């Protein structure tokens, strides 16, 4: 039975004889149905693409996808701007070292070669999609993480990320008396490495975060400074592609450590 005939059987007689009204209602219903099908398809494709990534702090199911979809409403679309890092409010939060940069004070930071990689549109997990390093390079990166910990074992420890839930991370030891507000007191997590793509997340000083973004070694997390107490200097570092880039990542990791302990310790 055509939809128009179906409608006529339910409309009052006076209205069912108005062909223009019947056709209009029919077109509206068809439009709404088509729109719903299209939106469901878009949502399904987005969910499958999100699910293909490794987990990232949220349940790896429809509930997690819905939560991160809501968070995307408040996320920043521009993750490469650096003017935030010159804001006196954020500099003040970093305390006495807010105006300093470990990277600039230890030789500067050269620009990363090539174009930036593509990064997924999702906020959790926040992952790099291309220009990934080999498994060998990932092992070098994890070895660098361990080396930084071993050289600074009185102030650092490693373990499983409390933010992401499964990837290796570096923490400030709990017994250090720290004051600034940009490194969350619980769990004092400074950085973690994503197993799937080899990228990292870390908290840097405003000056170091600015250098990393401007020199194309990374970008701001979409939620940095926007939601859930995520620090404005919460930064993604792109996955290293070769041993030389692992060395640069090691320097940036040391910058995160230096910032995490408020510049009080010499970082090896």
| N-to-C order of helices and strands | HHHHHHHEEEEHEEH
Radius of gyration: 25 Å
What order do the strands of the largest sheet run in, or round the barrel if closed? Answer: 1-2-3-4-6-5
By secondary-structure content and strand pairing, the structural class works out as alpha+beta
Number of strands: 6
Shape: elongated
Largest sheet: 6 strands, antiparallel
- Helix tally? 9
| Poorly predicted regions | none
Gap between N and C termini: 78 Å
Give the topology.
Elements: H1 3-10, H2 13-16, H3 19-51, H4 62-71, H5 88-93, H6 102-105, H7 135-151, E1 156-160, E2 168-172, E3 189-193, E4 200-203, H8 206-214, E5 218-220, E6 234-237, H9 243-260
Antiparallel strand pairs: 1-2, 2-3, 3-4, 4-6, 5-6
Write a concise keyword list for the protein shown above.
268 residues; alpha+beta; six-stranded antiparallel β-sheet; 41% helix; elongated
Describe the structure in your own words.
The protein has about 270 residues and is of the alpha+beta class. It is built from nine helices and six strands; from the N terminus they run H-H-H-H-H-H-H-E-E-E-E-H-E-E-H. It has a six-stranded antiparallel beta sheet with strand order 1-2-3-4-6-5, with helices on one face. A hairpin with a 7-residue loop joins strand 1 and strand 2. The mean pLDDT is about 85.
